[in-house]
Amino acid sequence: QVQLVESGGGLVQTGGSLRLSCTASGRTSYIAAMAWFRQAPGTERELVASLRWSAALAYYADSVKGRFTISRNVAGNQVYLQMNSLKPEDTAVYYCAVHPVGRDSYNYWGQGTQVTVSS
Q1: What is the separation, in whole angstroms, between the first and last Cα of the chain?
Q2: Which residues contact 41 (CB under 8 A, 6 or more apart)?
Q3: Which whole number is the average pLDDT over 79-92?
Q4: Over pLDDT 70: what percentage of the chain?
Q5: Most buried residue among 13, 75, 79, 81 by CB atoms closer than 10 A?
Q6: Residue 39 in 3-state DSSP?
Q7: Average pLDDT, whole number, for the chain?
């Protein structure tokens, strides 16, 4: 089992910045990748950014490329999402997730943190 705790959400104006943090605990040696997803009301959950844990290879959704940066602190089992140039369409609940070694999907999820961007 892996437990995830997110922090850093809030209300920000268009063009502003926020930094989300996620700390993993439990069986962290089985982490293959960590990611940030988001879900806005009435929409499906979407992958925003992911990071392969062993090689620090990052993936970004087209909608956030050049504005968001995913990074990690391996020693602290933490992953971050720096969000710059925020837009109202970035408003959503953001979830941290873990893809365990040997599995084919993200199996562990945080409780979510609300990000609201006002126009």
Answers
A1: 40
A2: none
A3: 98
A4: 100
A5: 79
A6: strand
A7: 95
Q: Which two tokens stand for residue 110?
A: 């945080």
Residue 55: per-residue pLDDT: 78
Q: Which of 95, 82, 98 is nearest to 32 (CA)?
A: 98
CB 44 within 8 A of CB 93: no
pLDDT tens digit string along 11-62?
999 999 999 999 999 998 999 999 999 999 999 999 999 999 887 799 999 9
d(CA 80, CA 36): 9
Tell me the one-letter amino acid at 39.
Q
Question: How far is Cα 31 from Cα 89, in angstroms, rounded to an integer?
Answer: 30
Contacts 24+ apart (CB under 8 A), 103-106: 103/32, 106/33, 106/35, 106/37
Q: Which two tokens stand for residue 62?
A: 């087209």
User: In angstroms, rounded to a whole number, what is the distance separating the alpha carbons of residues 28 and 41?
Assistant: 31
